[in-house]
Design brief:
The chain contains 16 helices and 2 strands. With 348 residues, the protein is mainly alpha-helical. The chain has one domain: Farnesyl Diphosphate Synthase. A two-stranded antiparallel sheet has the order 1-2. A hairpin with a 2-residue loop joins strand 1 and strand 2. The longest helix has 33 residues. The radius of gyration is 20 Å and the shape is globular. It starts with 5 loop residues before the first helix and ends with a helix.
């Protein structure tokens, strides 16, 4: 496989971000003008969601989309690819707004979550929650408007619409499995996170570029282990990352009682007394910082962090192995290989 140096990968990512952010500014400016004309009283809701869109974000999904297009067609991303990249970021905004409200997370990307910001704006927690749900819905409506307006040949447009609809259905089903504490966490994560973080963007790249069945199969084989590695890295960051790095309170996953891979491993490995101690901290919103620190110590003691890092390495190797195929073009494969490292070794 061709190797891409870090400077070239950085240049690619900067180009993707510049194109996507420019299009996002245009789309959101048009949408804000419409909102101001039709219902100016709702501008706090719109501005909170739009503000989240530009408050950080790594633009990894648009980068995967653009790299997939290179892997399938060999050509540079065009306007439709940039538009789809912007749409993926708006989809993320919609999902994050709802996810934060469902999980009761007060902070996202280093600032108040949208439901917290709107509770302050409207002076009422209930109104803030309702407005946040509507803010997510508004971004969803904007997403579908932009997808429907894509200027593509008929067959490619149909493929993009079908791929996007399946991706969105999967993430919604995965979110339901998450909030209902489904025991099958691997399936839940593949639906909730893998669908729109890795598998969906890659499949959209195949659809928008008119890629072959073989190319689509190769990228799907690449996406499955990479999506799993992405979620495992999220688990590690959720338990051990700092607020400065992740933009979320330390130990949030532990206070929410999420049965992450770390927790599952620890509960199976710890003795009965320590297992009960960990269970006594999990899911307690009022857990003190000292108790959260103890829970992290228990995860370490159980070897959970080491075990999950080993699984991330295995998934990373499997993803890279899947790229070794003549069904994909060399430059695109090199871009995707570079993105594997950025996704699996990130600190936020």
């Amino acid at each position: 496989m061709l190797r891409l140096d870090e400077a070239a990968l950085d240049g690619f990512l900067q180009d993707v971000r510049a194109g996507v952010d420019g299009r996002l500014r245009e789309v959101l400016a048009e949408a804000r003008a419409f909102t101001a004309e039709v219902a100016p009283e709702t501008l706090p809701m719109f501005d909170a969601a739009a503000g989240l869109t530009f408050r950080g974000g790594k633009r990894l999904r648009p980068a995967l989309l653009a790299a997939a297009v290179r892997a399938v067609s060999g050509g540079p991303p065009d306007d439709a690819v940039t538009e789809l990249g912007a749409v993926l970021e708006l989809l993320q905004t919609y999902l994050l707004v709802h996810d934060d409200w469902m999980d009761g997370d007060p902070v996202r990307r280093g600032a108040p979550s949208v439901h917290v910001e709107l509770a302050h704006a409207y002076g009422d927690d209930g109104l803030g929650a309702s407005a946040a749900v509507l803010a997510g819905d508004l971004m969803s409506a904007l997403v579908h408007e932009r997808v429907a307006a894509l200027d593509l040949p008929t067959e490619r447009r149909r493929a993009v619409l079908a791929t996007f609809a399946r991706m969105e259905r999967e993430v919604i089903l995965g979110q339901c499995l998450d909030v209902t504490r489904c025991a099958d966490t691997e399936r839940m994560h593949q639906l909730k996170t893998g669908s729109y973080t890795v598998r969906g963007p890659l499949a959209l790249g195949v659809a928008v570029a008119g890629g072959s069945v073989a190319a689509g199969a190769a990228l799907d084989a690449f996406a499955t282990p990479l999506g799993a590695a992405f979620q495992l890295r999220d688990d590690v960051l959720g338990a051990f990352g700092s607020e400065a790095e992740t933009g979320k309170p330390v130990g949030g996953d532990l206070r929410e009682g999420k049965r992450t891979a770390l927790v599952t491993h620890a509960l199976a490995a710890l003795d009965a007394d320590r297992g009960r101690e960990l269970e006594g901290i999990l899911g307690r919103r009022d857990a003190t910082d000292a108790e959260v620190a103890r829970a992290r110590d228990l995860l370490e003691l159980a070897g959970a962090r080491e075990a999950v890092e080993a699984r991330i390495a295995e998934h990373r190797a499997a993803a890279l192995e899947a790229l070794a195929t003549p069904a994909l073009r060399d430059h695109g494969r090199s871009l995707l290989a570079g993105l594997v490292g950025r996704i699996t070794e990130r600190r936020r």
